[in-house]
């Protein structure tokens, strides 16, 4: 990729900066949500976490006879 005009490079940097800012804000929001235990559980059972929803995720055993 090459640029014919200096403004093209500035535009590209601006777009990347906006994208990075979005990702940073999104990760901060996720971090805040996961600070609350029940919210983390809700995230795990949200669409896209098929293993948990299908019951394939490992869970701690509660008794010695628990499978």
What does this protein look like?
Helices cover 61% and strands 0% of the residues. It has helices spanning 6-34, 37-44, 50-53. It is elongated, with a radius of gyration of 21 Å.
Secondary-structure element pattern, one letter each? HHH
Q: Give me the Rg, rounded.
A: 21 Å
Largest sheet: none
**pLDDT < 50 runs, ≥5 residues:** 57-63
What is the structural class? mainly alpha
Oligomeric form = single chain
- Terminal residue distance: 57 Å
Q: Helices, strands, pairings?
A:
Blueprint: H1 6-34, H2 37-44, H3 50-53
Could you give a short description of this structure?
This protein has helices at 6-34, 37-44, 50-53.
Q: Descriptors for this entry?
A:
single chain, 67 residues, mainly alpha
């Amino acid at each position: 990729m090459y640029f014919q005009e200096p403004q093209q490079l500035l535009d590209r940097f601006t777009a990347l900066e906006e994208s990075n800012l979005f990702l940073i804000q999104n990760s901060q929001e996720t971090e805040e949500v996961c600070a609350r235990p029940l919210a983390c559980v809700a995230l795990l059972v949200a669409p896209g976490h098929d293993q948990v929803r299908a019951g394939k995720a490992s869970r701690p055993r509660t008794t010695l006879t628990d499978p």
